[in-house]
Amino acid sequence: MRRVSVFGATGSVGVSTLDLLARRDDLQVAVLTGGRNVDLLAKQAVAHRAERAVTAFDDCYQPLKDALAGTGIAVAAGPGAVLEAGHVPADWTMSAIVGAAGLAPGFAALSQGRIVALANKESLVTAGPLLLAEARAHGATILPVDSEHSAVFQALTGEEIAAVETVTLTASGGGLRDWPMERLRHATPAEAGTHPNWDMGQRITIDSASMFNKAMEVIEAHEFFGLAPDQIAVLIHPQSLVHALVAFRDGAVMGHLGAPDMRHPIGYALNWPSRAALPVARLNLARVGRLDFAEPDLARYPALSLARQVMQTGGCAGAVFNAAKEIALDHFIARQIGFLDMAAVVDSTLARFADLGRAPQSLADVLAIDTEARALAQQAARARHAGAA
Ligand code: NDP
């Protein structure tokens, strides 16, 4: 039996992962981790006969323990328990905790030298070189789970990276794609939190509308595939059916198409290096009829220019960018700053952070940079709020 663990099992990616695991009878679930959604975690642990269920929050221990009483499933709580779970032997681990909390468990899973399916975007953006070095040191394989990166990974199978001229990541443009700039300025969190094609959580949906999500993905692609900043392009593609395009030096372009369903990239990572049947909708291009593409307007999506700046700066710019983006998003959701102010907060934090070119040397370093950047971003967001009031 192949042993699998899912970190962030109760989230959107986690639930899709478990949907695929439930269709298999050749897997043993070692660990499932969650956060505050204890009821769902307990149900998942029972349904999947997990050996261990872990909540990241100490105060959720007793409710989880009660919910799993008599099942024989081991229960643990707290960030330390999540980290420890990363060391429980597993052949395949899904890293789908949201935010910086996903970093340390992901590193722990890599230390087992097996396969880590990586959904957590923050890992590559904030600690890309450290993460890849950890994987190399332990002979572990990282498989990208973001649909665009999985698409690039698949298009690169059997190819040399040196033969790649450019990689294009597509973006739907989010729910506010066709809004005029003036209206965009006054967009509310509810309006920005509605996505035309993908069913995701509120934060990532707003990041999709602002293209901060795409900016993160551009940085991820730079780190993971070792591409230069000017080799990575973004195209708006409202239908979200072409996930990425890889252009080679002989003029060929390999595109990856498919229905927008996270179970495809997750399933690809689960079955890699083989392909197995997956329960995703089949693409019928005759029915689709047309595929549209457009260059993104950088004035409308300043996050994309910030991503370029981050890649060119290197060092700890990714960690600062991610932390500032999180704080800016918190303030936007709390309606303290406007939709377009988010990029201004990130820009100001990058400008004010001392020694942006300094590369983090350890995970502890990354977390310290994250804390420092969050404090600076808080100041920038408050100043923006005060200026607007
Ligand atoms: P969700 O918010 O839906 O789920 C996040 C998961 O992390 C939940 O299990 C949550 O537990 C858990 N969690 C929350 N806080 C903590 C914490 N402090 N410590 C440990 N666990 C915690 O996120 P998504 O599934 O949407 O995304 C997960 C990651 O994958 C993100 O980095 C995202 O950017 C990335 N991603 C997501 C995609 C998508 O389609 N959604 C696509 C590609 C990448 P609980 O809910 O129980 O509190």
Any overview of this molecule?
This protein has 389 residues and is an alpha/beta fold. The protein is built from 17 helices and eleven strands. The protein has helices at 12-21, 38-47, 61-67, 79-85, 103-110, 121-138, 147-155, 181-185, 189-192, 202-210, 212-225, 263-271, 285-288, 302-313, 317-333, 341-352, 363-388; strands spanning 2-7, 27-34, 52-55, 74-77, 92-95, 115-118, 141-144, 164-171, 232-236, 242-248, 253-257. The strands form two sheets. Strands 4-3-2-1-5-6-7 form a seven-stranded parallel sheet, sandwiched between helices. The radius of gyration is 20 Å and the shape is globular. The structure holds NADPH dihydro-nicotinamide-adenine-dinucleotide phosphate.
Bound compounds, each kind once, are:
NADPH dihydro-nicotinamide-adenine-dinucleotide phosphate
- Using the CA coordinates, give the radius of gyration: 20 Å
The amount of beta strand, in percent, is: 15-25%
The averaged pLDDT comes out at 96
Q: What strand line-up does the widest sheet have?
A: 4-3-2-1-5-6-7
In N-to-C order, the SSE pattern is: EHEHEHEHEHEHEHEHHHHEEEHHHHHH
Shape from CA axes? globular
Question: What ranges have pLDDT less than 50 throughout 5 or more consecutive residues?
Answer: none
Query: How much helix is in the residues?
Result: 40-55%
Through-space gap between termini: 60 Å
Biggest pleated sheet: 7 strands, parallel
Secondary-structure class: alpha/beta
The count of β-strands is: 11
Number of helices: 17
Strand-helix topology:
Blueprint: E1 2-7, H1 12-21, E2 27-34, H2 38-47, E3 52-55, H3 61-67, E4 74-77, H4 79-85, E5 92-95, H5 103-110, E6 115-118, H6 121-138, E7 141-144, H7 147-155, E8 164-171, H8 181-185, H9 189-192, H10 202-210, H11 212-225, E9 232-236, E10 242-248, E11 253-257, H12 263-271, H13 285-288, H14 302-313, H15 317-333, H16 341-352, H17 363-388
Parallel strand pairs: 1-2, 1-5, 2-3, 3-4, 5-6, 6-7, 8-9
Antiparallel strand pairs: 8-10, 10-11
Helix pairs in contact: 4-5, 5-6, 6-11, 6-15, 11-14, 15-16, 15-17, 16-17
